[in-house]
C-alpha cells in the first residue's frame, strides 16, 4: 500500500516523533508506515486520517493507484 503520510507530515512541519505522539504510537511505527513496510490497522488508519483532516482514501491507496 502506498501512502501520503510523509508529505502530509512535512506540510505541517512535524517531525516523525511529533506525529507519533499525536497518534499514540512509536516513532518507529511512523517510519515503517511512511516507508511502506507496515500497513496500519484500520483504527490507526482512521486516527491518521483524522489528524490530517482527510479521508483514509486521501492518505492511503493501493500500489497500483500510485
UniProtKB/TrEMBL annotation:
Keywords: DNA-binding. SUPFAM superfamilies: lambda repressor-like DNA-binding domains (SSF47413). InterPro entries: Cro/C1-type_HTH (IPR001387), Lambda_DNA-bd_dom_sf (IPR010982). Residues 5-59 form the HTH cro/C1-type domain. CDD domains: HTH_XRE. The keyword Plastid does not apply. PANTHER family: DNA-BIDING PHAGE PROTEIN, TRACRIPTIONAL REGULATORY PROTEIN-RELATED-RELATED. This is Helix-turn-helix transcriptional regulator.
